[in-house]
Specification:
Layout lengths: L2 E11 L4 E6 L12 E4 L2 E11 L2 E6 L5 H5 L5 E5 L13 H4 L3 E4 L4 E9 L6 E4 L4 E4 L5 E5 L4 E4 L1 H7 L1 E2 L2
Parallel strand pairs: 7-12
Antiparallel strand pairs: 1-2, 1-6, 2-5, 3-4, 3-6, 4-5, 7-8, 8-9, 9-10, 10-13, 11-12
């Protein structure tokens, strides 16, 4: 079964097994729609979900004390890809972008996308080969094909916004 990451357990919350999680999804409310989640390869039924400004608080069936919750610290939360949210046009899951080969529209191989930073109004793509970063703007992204693991960039627009590591 193919899965996708939707969050990360940060820490136990209280003494009854509740965990605080960092959502790694566009919409934290999606946690309210879930019945189960996978953590460290184990499927847990979700007993309760609380969404707050500082994170998502989950109570998982079978995690009924602080020690069991502590055992989940820093673990990723997964759902089957079939339960992933539907993305808008020209949107992709970060997990699908990582590992894409990146070239410019002149055919020059720039490297492989290794990370996506989400710090502001536009995601920032990090490429290992040329040691560069650039905002994921429509004018820069000529095409993205996650099925073929290829991203083609507009070289002219890239020159305007790229940051190269020395």
């Amino acid at each position: 079964m193919e899965t996708i990451v939707i969050g990360k357990v940060l820490k136990p919350q209280g003494i009854k097994g509740e965990v605080k999680a960092l959502p790694i999804t566009q919409d934290s409310l999606r946690f309210k729609e879930l019945d189960t989640v996978f953590v460290a390869g184990i499927e847990y039924d979700i007993k309760s979900v609380k969404i707050r400004d500082d994170g998502v608080y989950l109570t998982l069936d079978g995690v009924d004390d602080r020690n069991k919750a502590e055992g989940l610290r820093n673990e990723l939360l997964y759902v089957p890809r079939s339960k992933a949210i539907k993305l808008e046009k020209d949107s992709w899951f970060i997990t699908d972008l990582i590992g894409c080969k990146v070239t410019d529209d002149k055919g020059k191989l720039l490297g492989t996308l290794t990370d996506v930073l989400q710090n502001g109004c536009a995601d920032v793509y990090c490429i290992d080969g040329e040691k560069l970063m650039f905002p994921a703007l429509k004018k820069v992204l000529s095409s993205v094909d996650v099925e073929r693991k290829e991203i083609i960039l507009n070289s002219e627009a890239l020159r305007e916004v790229a940051v190269y590591e020395n």
